[in-house]
Specification:
Distance between the termini: 6 Å
Helix content: over 70%
Radius of gyration: 15 Å
Number of helices: 5
Largest sheet: none
Strand content: under 5%
Order of helices and strands: HHHHH
Number of domains: 1
Shape: elongated
Oligomer: single chain
Length: about 130
């Protein structure tokens, strides 16, 4: 049987990197070429900055779900809603596909490996 703590921690760390990136975008960091298919190089316009904050929140929630399923935080969350882990797996899978097909080579180089690690680690936690 797979021990879920290690892949959950990996998911949390990698997701923390993605959250920090999204918060940076929201605060005006000029990293737009590495997000949204590179459609907005430089700083995001205000509406996309709000979207980056929403994305950061979603990612943080997914990290809590994965860590909870591994029993590292909020064990009652996983006990009450054991199916939530599959949302994290599905989100990570969709993210991997979208980052694989993006037109932005920079985005693909950075975020495809991140999405693959998120998918693999969340799947390992789900199957544990």
């Amino acid at each position: 049987m797979i021990e879920p703590a290690a892949p959950a921690i990996v998911f949390g760390l990698v997701t923390g990197f993605a959250v920090a990136f999204q918060v940076g975008l929201a605060l005006g960091a000029p990293w737009g070429r590495f997000a949204m298919g590179g459609a907005y190089p430089g700083r995001f316009p205000p509406r996309l900055r709000v979207g980056a904050l929403v994305q950061a929140a979603v990612l943080a929630i997914l990290a809590v779900i994965v860590l909870a399923h591994a029993g590292l935080v909020l064990p009652e969350l996983s006990a009450s809603y054991p199916w939530l882990i599959w949302l994290a797996v599905a989100f990570s899978g969709v993210s991997a596909v979208l980052n694989a097909i993006t037109r932005s080579a920079g985005e693909r180089r950075i975020w495809l490996p991140v999405a693959i690690v998120m998918l693999a680690s969340s799947l390992l936690v789900a199957l544990a």
